[in-house]
Amino acid sequence: MKKTAAVIGTGLIGGSIGKALLAGRSYSRVIGIGRNRAKLRLALKEKAVSSWSTDYSALKEADLVIVCTPVVHIENIFAKIGPSLKPGCIVTDAGSTKERIVKSSAKLPKGVFFVGSHPIAGSHKRGVGNADGRMFFGTLCIVTAAKGANSKAVNSVASLWKSLGCRVMFMSPSEHDRTLALTSHVPHFTASALVLAVLNGDKKRERVLGKGFLDTTRIAAGSPELWCEIASSNRKNIALGIDKVISALRKIKKNAGSRKLLPLLAKASKLRGKLK
Amino acid sequence: MKKTAAVIGTGLIGGSIGKALLAGRSYSRVIGIGRNRAKLRLALKEKAVSSWSTDYSALKEADLVIVCTPVVHIENIFAKIGPSLKPGCIVTDAGSTKERIVKSSAKLPKGVFFVGSHPIAGSHKRGVGNADGRMFFGTLCIVTAAKGANSKAVNSVASLWKSLGCRVMFMSPSEHDRTLALTSHVPHFTASALVLAVLNGDKKRERVLGKGFLDTTRIAAGSPELWCEIASSNRKNIALGIDKVISALRKIKKNAGSRKLLPLLAKASKLRGKLK
User: Fold this and answer.
1) For residue B148, what are the CA distances in angstroms to A219, B83, B168, B172?
2) Are A193 and A63 members of one domain?
3) Residue B90 has what pLDDT?
4) Are B130 and B249 members of one domain?
């Protein structure tokens, strides 16, 4: 029997998930839930959902609920949706940090199964108008279960992402946040810091910028609001990572002009050169 | 009457200059000077030079001498070539830092005109086998004259690079080194520091790396020897630039989790977003 899914937050990610589920075999219905009626109507028109509501009570028919709102809203949503959820339903999310979200899932009622997800896909584009059911093909999704999570629910969530085309990797919520701080968040803030250190509106200086600088700072052009939110939800790990970068910069500065710099740069060159 | 040029150091840059000059209208001969006979023979075979010598006395016929060796050797070369230079000849270089080189050009005899150059071209490839006379087309060359430099010589050197297809920008040697520290050297060392902070050979972590990290650290794979040399020849400006990056990183770390982060990230996003 085909099942019912609900997507809370029908932007680029929620809309893409909705389209993918409606194109697949397991779900006959995707209910879009949100606050903004115009956006929900657009999601319906774009065929990212099969119906919509501004009321959480519409969740009562859902076998699967995917929360795709900005990270800051997820905790509050968990606190509110409990009474509307069907016993046995599976809840997941698409937030880019996990420790706080998985912790706050304790607010969900017993008999409902939460497993965190972080699909590492996305685009500089936004909104359901850019949603694409094939957006997750070939991308990585990290699935993060709390200690003692129901293993059937963990497998269901992993299967969900696989059915959307993702490679799935399992991590604990804290391993996820430590890892992403280093592989994604700290690189972003390092690029921002480099821009702030180098650019001051001087046109002559801008004319000298080469491909190296442009590559190294490209991600700094990303959404300030989104990255503020990520900084807030993964503050401690990001602070530790920034300290590591500062310490490496200090070492390079201290050894500039000495042969001791060579093994440092050689190590960095070798580690980076091995990647594509 | 067609003139004679000499290129000291016939690698990728020296070889590309030689090819471009031999393809142009002003020079009938390009003499390659170096220490390694096999490399010089290859330069002749590749038509990057029209003759070669391991002896500086071959410089006596040159109207133009371009020093294309690694930066560390240039000072020593200036100290040695003086007796072989023709009175009135113009000497330039292709080194990527300028203050020390322009200062050490005082070792050249009176009656010989030195003007520094930094063609911002290049490639991860090396050697005269990869030399290309069109390599400089559309690239930037910064021409750096010492105070009181002969203006005819400055114009000749600027014309040389324009004839090779470069846009020419004039800077004082110290302005060049301050600017390049920020636009090129510090971005390189920041990318190296990020690699050293993030990568430790952990395969699981590597599987999570996205396009953002790969873009941000691409330049860190560059030649450790070359960048050691650059660090040594522009140490003070690089140290000042690294301090600026550290200070921006500290500010981001301090404000992570507060709304004060937003204007910082918004400024970086706007400054970077304006560039391509």
Assistant:
1) 44, 23, 19, 11
2) no
3) 97
4) no
Distance from CA of A152 to the nearest CA of B (A): 24
- Can you tell me which residue has the tokens 């300028």? B98
A contacts of B253 (beta carbons < 8 Å): 189, 238-239, 242-243
Tokens at residue B236, please?
Answer: 């003070």
Chain B residue at shortest CA distance from A208: B183
Residue A231 and residue B210: Cβ atoms within 8 Å? no
Same domain, A180 and A163: no
**Mutate which: B217, B228, B233, vs A, most A CBs within 10 A:** B228
Question: Does A269 contact B206 at a Cβ distance shorter than 8 Å?
Answer: no
Q: Give the model confidence (pLDDT) of A234-268 as tens digits.
A: 999 999 999 999 999 999 999 999 999 999 999 99
Contact A197 B186 (CB under 8 A): yes
Nearest residue on chain A to B221, judged by CA atoms? A269
Beta bridge partners of residue B170, listed in sequence order: B143
Reported as a pLDDT band with limits 50, 70 and 90, residue B122 is low
Q: What's the domain count of chain A?
A: 2
In this predicted model, what pLDDT tens digit does every residue of B50-94 receive, in sequence order? Answer: 999 999 999 999 999 999 999 989 999 999 999 999 999 999 999
Percent helix / strand / coil, chain A, rounded to 5: 55, 15, 30
Query: Residue B26's closest CA among B145, B216, B162, B169?
Result: B162
- Of A194, A204, A222, nearest to B245 by CB-CB distance is A194
The pair of structure tokens assigned to B190 is: 């920041």
Same domain as B241, residue B220:
yes
Q: Choose the final residue of a domain: A141, A171, A201.
A: A171
What range defines the domain where residue A63 resides? 3-171
Which is it for strands B116-120 and B140-144: parallel, antiparallel or unpaired?
A: antiparallel
Q: How far is B60 from chain A (nearest CA, A)?
A: 35
The CATH code of the domain that includes B16 is: 3.40.50.720
The DSSP code for B3 is: E
Which H or E run includes A253?
helix A235-255
Give me the interface pTM, i.e. the ipTM. Answer: 0.90
Please report how the helices A186-198 and A224-233 are oriented relative to each other, as an axis angle in degrees rounded to 10. 130
Claim to verify: residue B150 and residue B218 sit in the same structural domain: no
Domain end, chosen from B144, B171, B198, is at B171
Measured distance CA(B253)–CA(B245) in Å, rounded: 12
- A219/B218 Cβ within 8 A: no
Do B158 and B260 sit in the same domain of this protein? no
Helix (H) or strand (E) holding A171: strand A167-171
CB atoms within 10 A of CB B274: 11
Q: Minimal CA–CA distance to A64: which of A29, A40, A106, A38?
A: A29
The closest CB to that of A249, out of B193, B209, B269, belongs to: B193
% of chain A beyond a pLDDT of 90:
92
